Amino acid sequence: MKEIYDYIIVGGGISGLHLGALLSRHGRVIIFERSDTVGGRAKVIEKDGFKLDYGIHLIRFGPESALGASLLEINKSISFIKPGRSWAFLKNGERKLYPTGSLMDIVRSDLVPFGKTIRLLLKIKKMDQKKLKPLYDTSLADWYQQENILPKIQTYLTMTSSAVQVNPFPNRSSAGELLKNIQRVLEMGSAYYPQGGWGPIFNQFENFILENGGKIELNSAVTEILIENGSCKGVKVRDNIFNGSQIISTIPVQELFTILDEKYCESQFINKCKNLRPTAGVVIDFCLDEQISDIDGLIFFEEPLSFGFIPSNLSKDVAPEGKSLMTFLRVANVEDMKNKDTVKEIYQEFRKVIFRAFPEIESHLIDERSLFLPMVDGVEVNIKQHQFNRLGHTIKNVEKLWLVGDSVGGEGAGGDVGHTSVRECYKQIRRKENT
Ligand SMILES: Cc1cc2nc3c(=O)[nH]c(=O)nc-3n(C[C@H](O)[C@H](O)[C@H](O)COP(=O)(O)OP(=O)(O)OC[C@H]3O[C@@H](n4cnc5c(N)ncnc54)[C@H](O)[C@@H]3O)c2cc1C
């Protein structure tokens, strides 16, 4: 059986649905998702009235983000909630206000010295691209040394790197990328949480695709991307062939060669895909029978460096009335996630630090979920994989096959990369179609 579509999308994660929605305005879209639900690494699970995002899930710049821009463009905007004050729990047991960039936060907080921090932030704000560019290849640790950054400000910036670019490792976190991200935060504000969690975002995109006559096929793993004479013709799903004018893969590029024959690509490209370093880590979510803390911003732990927040303090509807949902992420090295004993250690140490800060969890716990993730973000933002070194949307010598998602192109970090890559790839596809 052969079916013909304008756009065939492999993967029903946020990138597949986001791009599918944009393209559904121009032709027939079909999305193939191998699992029984959409969402991929941002999927939402509902349990006993708790709506659990897939671990901590905020959206940098909320309505100003690439995701926010697309929702607005298709007339399916959602409400974004701005978090309140953030807090840092230090290894000496103290709790301090974590400044998110506003002058007043820096005045109020003694996590960092006021004068020096303000001067540094002003300096960062004024840096132009010429000054920033060479710093993309410089690690945060080297930059701390070059600039003689005070230890307290180092701690603050490393916490910021852990949250903003999911990289708590100063030896490889890209200084240029972090400074650019800080500039964007100073200009556009920080992360937001979607009202009702991530479910409404998926619903908006899914509804738009279906309203435009598109299809989303669950339990449908693509087993092969079909290429003929250097041009992509379609995909194979079980024994069926689906032909399409443009084929878009949204699966992380590390997995691309599970469905694409290597013979079509250059070895340098294959190696870059396979060796791309993702971020990894451990997530712990707690469902509680009542609210035990009123913190409505981010929560940082200094050691082990990790962070979290309380989604139900921002959007009450993600937990049953009167109940509370907390979520925490400890970023770990991808190699460590492959070793069972190390993972166990990471998890236990992490859980202990959460309980030290919030001992009330113990007596109010209804349910707890742990996730051990070999991939959090498709690409770790580091000195080798910063935005100027990332893969693009096309493959040399293969026409009509596009790559999208959080392992490809895009500025920013984490989900940002995915959302910006979707909008950039959408533009490129449309440009190609119109020439
Ligand atoms: C714990 C955690 C916390 C995070 N926190 C944040 C955050 O705070 N902010 C943020 O912006 N981002 C965050 N992220 C990152 C964000 O979730 C990802 O960037 C995003 O979900 C990636 O979406 P994607 O569609 O590009 O890829 P994926 O979600 O990986 O989607 C790919 C889809 O393809 C499907 N698939 C794979 N192979 C096949 C096949 N052969 N055939 C058909 N389907 C296939 C998969 O099942 C999957 O659904 C977080 C991620 C995690 C895991």
Describe the structure.
The chain contains 14 helices and 20 strands. It is of the alpha+beta class and 435 residues long. The protein folds into 3 domains: 2-78 and 197-276 and 381-433, FAD/NAD(P)-binding domain (3-Layer(bba) Sandwich), CATH 3.50.50; 86-189, Orthogonal Bundle (Guanine Nucleotide Dissociation Inhibitor, domain 1), CATH 1.10.405; 280-333 and 335-373, Polyamine Oxidase, Chain A, domain 2 (Alpha-Beta Complex), CATH 3.90.660.50. The strands form 4 sheets. Strands 1, 2, 10, 11, 12, 13, 19 and 20 form an 8-stranded mixed β-sheet that branches. The chain has a 7-stranded mixed β-sheet with strand order 8-7-15-16-17-14-18, sandwiched between helices. Helix 1 packs parallel to helix 9 and helix 1 (14-23) runs parallel beside helix 14 (415-433). It is globular, with a radius of gyration of 22 Å. Bound molecules: flavin-adenine dinucleotide. Flavin-adenine dinucleotide binds at residues 10-16, 32-35, 40-42, 54-59, 221-222, 250-252, 259, 283, 329, 373, 376-377, 405-406, 414-416, 418. The site of flavin-adenine dinucleotide has 37 residues, from helix 1 and helix 14.
Helical content (DSSP H or I, runs of 4+): 25-40%
How many E strands?
Answer: 20
Q: Compute the gyration radius: what is it?
A: 22 Å
Secondary structure tally, helices: 14
CATH architecture of the largest domain: 3-Layer(bba) Sandwich
Ions, cofactors and other ligands present here are: flavin-adenine dinucleotide
Biggest β-sheet, characterized?
8 strands, mixed
What's the CATH superfamily of the largest domain, by name?
A: FAD/NAD(P)-binding domain
Shape summary: globular
Oligomer: single chain
Alpha carbon gap, first and last residue: 31 Å
Number of domains: 3
Q: Report the top-level CATH class of the largest domain.
A: Alpha Beta
Whole-number mean pLDDT? 95
Task: Please identify the structural class as seen in this structure.
Answer: alpha+beta
What is the strand content? Answer: 15-25%
CATH topology of the largest domain: FAD/NAD(P)-binding domain
As residue ranges, the low-confidence spans are none
